[in-house]
Amino acid sequence: xxxxxxxxxxxxxxxxxxxxxxxxxxxxxxxxxxxxxxxxxxxxxxxxxxxxxxxxxxxxxxxxxxxxxxxxxxxxxxxxxxxxxxxxxxxxxxxxxxxxxxxxxxxxxxxxxxxxxxxxxxxxxxxxxxxxxxxxxxxxxxxxxxxxxxxxxx
Length: 154
Description:
Elements: H1 2-33, H2 43-49, H3 51-70, H4 81-86, H5 92-95, H6 103-115, H7 117-123, H8 125-153
Helix pairs in contact: 1-6, 3-6, 7-8
């Protein structure tokens, strides 16, 4: 059992490593294609071009500082198998996307989100909302299924 936990931790750590470097690469390649590593448009112009990405980023920042300032435990907002499956607190599927353990966690998530704003530029804001919601629900469902398998088959 202990070796399977180590294997799972290694897989998760490797996944985070791959996601981090792939988001850095996409960020780099996006600006390299424009011929400059720094955007000449300015932050507010870029935010106006991708309003959904800016709104999600602002919501995550606001939620982080509100939660940190009010000292609400993350266990009341995060994704919990017991809370979602047995108690039916389905709102946690969405609030878990807004909870971050630390500022560095928030920073990397916002950096990844900001590098993916290219999707909003190419496919439009409505499609970006739809795709983000689908990704959120599917990733939460996969997490809950994984925890269910760990509980049932350990």
